[in-house]
Task: structure prediction
Amino acid sequence: MVLSKTFPKTFKYVDSLDVSYCDLLDKTAKDFFNDENYYDRAAQAIRRRFVRGAEFVYGIDRGNKRTKIKRVSDGGKFRYFIEGNDGNWSQPDERIWVVAMYALWQKTKGKI
Result:
């Protein structure tokens, strides 16, 4: 898989960032483009959690706060949603952000 073609909006955004000035979420997304195996491991880990029956998983958002992530089946495809501070659920433009949030949470637990 070529992530830059799979997630073109995110690639264009993170490619223009200076790593020394971006937050952890941006750094994680940028790391995915530099090491696609890292993305694959994180994406498989979040998928496994949902396949094993998790209603939601945790992630770390841009404000460095723990947030919930849920997966909803939509006609054979899965859509991921992130819980905001106000309790509402929103869907990011590209799934890579959900995987990055989950990877950050995994890092705090020493799992990735």
About this structure: Residues 4 and 12 are 8 Å apart (CA to CA). DSSP finds five helices and four strands in the chain.
